[in-house]
Amino acid sequence: MSLQTAGHNLLEESVAEAGEASARPVKIGIRNVGKVFQIRGSDRPFTAVQDVSLDVREGEFLTLVGPSGCGKSTLLDLIAGLTSPTGGELLIDGTPIDGPGLDRGIVFQQYALFPWRTALANIEFGLEAKAVPKRERRERARHYLDLVGLDGFEHRYPHELSGGMRQRVAIARSLAFDPDVLLMDEPFAALDAQTRESLQEELLRIWEKTNKTIVFITHGIDEAVFLGQRVAVMTSRPGRIKRVLDITFDSREGDLRADPRFGEYRHHIWTLLRDEVAAAQEQERTIG
Amino acid sequence: MADETTLTAAHPAQERTAPPPAGPARTAAPEAGPGQAEPSGAATGSAVRGETGGTRTVTAARGDAPTDDDRVTNFFKVAGGRRTSAASRLATVVKRSLALVLLAALWEVLPRAGAVDPVFVPPLSEILVAWYDMLLAGQLPEHFQASLVRSLSGFGLAIVLAIPLGLAIGWYRPVADFLSPVLELFRNTSAVALLPVFILIFGLGETSKIVFVFYACAWPILLNTVSGVKTVEPLLIKSARSMGLGPVRLFQKVILPAAVPTIFTGIRLAGAYSILVLIFAEMVGAKAGLGYLIQDAQFNFRIPDMYAGIITISALGLLFNLLLLSVERRFSTWRTS
């Protein structure tokens, strides 16, 4: 019972504080977006996401949680312009997204570093695509390598770096070509708990420093609450936005995870997700 | 029977690295079999050589002038070069060269003891003397050069032509669809079966031999290039696309560098084939070359010379593979293993 009241309080606060955030212009507009795949060898189409509407404001850190297979990654691919929607529309700065571009950078869970390039050369990759002159490229790459705390590792190949370091390089690579939006697809899921926590804090530091708009996919509720200004909770497949929660803390000093409100947020999201996870597992059973 | 062995011995290395695109010609293998005359023993030997080449590592070569024996042990020393401590390296050398030393000892002792007929299998020392005499007489360098020029020409030609073709097939679906059936058919036609055709068309001279070597070398390079292009990690392509790379730059900056190690595997296999098949061609019809030398020595009952020729070929194959390995390492320092 008390848990439910906690949830209610949070919601009321969300509404109250929404005013401040909505003052900023919309960076990414997702309007009734749907994506249906035709599966080979099956005449039943596969609906990955359905009727998703969501606005991400400029400079906002939005996290997206949902049960596995709910279409989170599809949604990210759509924003990235790697696939196009079968319904609805996606806007960036008010103009429709058609194809990938250097105004958006993606960070993948599996790093996606080019194994034949050193850390520095990997960071330069996007700058080459942007046709930045060689000298400036090098300078900028070094700057971002420093920013993610990897100075001294310029000439290491990805296989000579730890998982956490690789992800730092990947983040630096996406930051280096200076996109407005950073799309992150469970970037810390493959890392151990300690590395993950330190990278989370570092990401927040970088976000505050660079004012990027960040859309961060995760299946970790803690991570979503810790990082996001807002948390969007998705339903099981076909993925829809179930609820969007504003996350506010009086102070981020000290151990945020020990803050009672952290626990309340987490529990609230957990409650929202519980049914969806059960539904997703049910789906997997019936399909498998 | 021998034909079957030849086929299965020559192909697994390709199969492993390059799953063939499905095509109706896949079944052509047994029909292509009869008519081949390649000695199965030689083919099996080469396959083994190609296999071991994949696992060993080259780090250093000793500076002093190698004798034939020396070169062989030196290779094994090099093989253990990864270890850091000198003591463990020495242990590895001893362990690895033990079988080889034993073989050499048996080869020396058994003929002398009369356990095998010394006329057909002379002691190793006599063979080495014969080898040295041929070296001084200029006979060996002459044949060696003739063989080397032929195999390098065919091999070089294969690299120059098969890599671009492989890239095109791997990258452009229509090219693959168009060429696959023909390639599938020819791939399953042994080079040895086509040698008479090459001789008919290009005559008995150098051209037919070079074309023959080219044909044999082109397949491993082509198939590995195709599979190298096709098996590039999709996430890397996605990542590059997300950074706005068009098809041309995607190919240049992602596909090509990612495919290099696989292409090199093909090049190394081709290097082994180039010598292997050439020897066969030289045995069929030539006036110079190591294959001719061996055949000629056997006809004239110069048994030590024959063995000397065989040892030279082994050494050449070994050296060629080591050379290619070191080039390969230079190009793929980034590889995890």
Automatic annotation (TrEMBL), chain A:
Q: Where is the ABC transporter domain?
A: 28-261
Q: Which InterPro entries match?
A: AAA+_ATPase, ABC_transporter-like_ATP-bd, ABC_transporter-like_CS, ABC_transporter_ATP-bind, P-loop_NTPase
The protein's matches in Gene3D superfamilies, at most eight in alphabetical order, are given as: P-loop containing nucleotide triphosphate hydrolases
Q: SUPFAM superfamilies per the record?
A: P-loop containing nucleoside triphosphate hydrolases (SSF52540)
Q: Which UniProt keywords apply?
A: ATP-binding, Nucleotide-binding, Transport
Cite a single GO MF annotation.
ATP binding
- What Pfam families does the record tag this protein with? ABC_tran
- PANTHER family per the UniProt record, alphabetical: ALIPHATIC SULFONATES IMPORT ATP-BINDING PROTEIN SSUB (PTHR42788:SF13), TAURINE IMPORT ATP-BINDING PROTEIN-RELATED (PTHR42788)
What is the name of this protein?
Answer: ABC transporter ATP-binding protein
Organism per entry: Planobispora takensis
UniProtKB/TrEMBL annotation, chain B:
Record keyword ATP-binding present: no
Which terms in the GO cellular component ontology are assigned? plasma membrane
Q: Quick one: signal sequence residues? A: none
Ranges of biased composition (kind: Low complexity): 24-64
Annotated transmembrane regions: 152-173, 185-204, 273-294, 306-327
Q: According to its record, how does it sit in the membrane?
A: Multi-pass membrane protein
Q: Record keywords: Cell membrane included?
A: yes
Q: Which GO terms describe its biological process?
A: transmembrane transport
Assigned keywords, A-Z: Cell membrane, Membrane, Transmembrane, Transmembrane helix, Transport
ABC transmembrane type-1 domain residues are 144-324
Source organism superkingdom: Bacteria
Provide the protein's localization. Answer: Cell membrane
InterPro entries referenced in this protein's UniProt entry, alphabetically: MetI-like, MetI-like_sf
Region described as Disordered: 1-66
Name the family: Belongs to the binding-protein-dependent transport system permease family.
Protein name stated in the entry = ABC transmembrane type-1 domain-containing protein
- Origin species, per record, is Planobispora takensis
Instruction: List the taxonomic lineage.
Output: Bacteria, Bacillati, Actinomycetota, Actinomycetes, Streptosporangiales
